[in-house]
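agent> Task received from the user: take the single chain below, predict its 3D structure, and emit structure tokens. No templates, no multimer pairing.
agent> Plan: (1) validate residues, (2) run structure prediction, (3) serialize to tokens, (4) report one or two observations.
agent> Step 1 OK, no nonstandard residues flagged.
tool_call: predict_structure(input=
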Amino acid sequence: MKNILLPHPTLSGVLLIVWLLLNNSVAPGHIVLGAFIAFSIPVFTRVLWPRPARIHRPDLVLKLVGVALWDIVKANIEVATRILGSQKNLRPRFVRLPLELDNDYAITTLASVISLTPGTVTADVAVDRKSLLIHCLHVDDEAALIDTIKRRYEAPLKEIFA
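)
tool_result: status=success, residues=162
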């Protein structure tokens, strides 16, 4: 019953608060109208929401976050060094990364981690979800880049979202 009447309670609460803040009033009429909006929008849009993610290895999430943060710090230093140095040495390239992931949340997380890392950005996800197109600021060895991404990010994500 809770699922039908209140499919996204956090969203409902946020909508009510935002409504009241936008109106700068806690008058009874605004509370009633805000509550109606806060409950109606999630009910009418529940079919548009994806299924919740199922995380099978929560212990790996912290490890992956740590790896990604470390890689972001290293990439910041590397990108700053390359940009401040001679730009003739830059070798930008698009790289097609074949995916073994089949979970939409895992693919989205991988694309996000790649884009968060300075010097790389996910440009496209193939229609069949079998590969990502990545633009890299500098690529010495395409195979090594693909291997690094698969080992450091894709392998843990396969276990997290298995």
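agent> Step 4: summary for the user.
The helical segments are 2-5, 9-23, 28-45, 58-84, 104-116, 142-160.
agent> Done.
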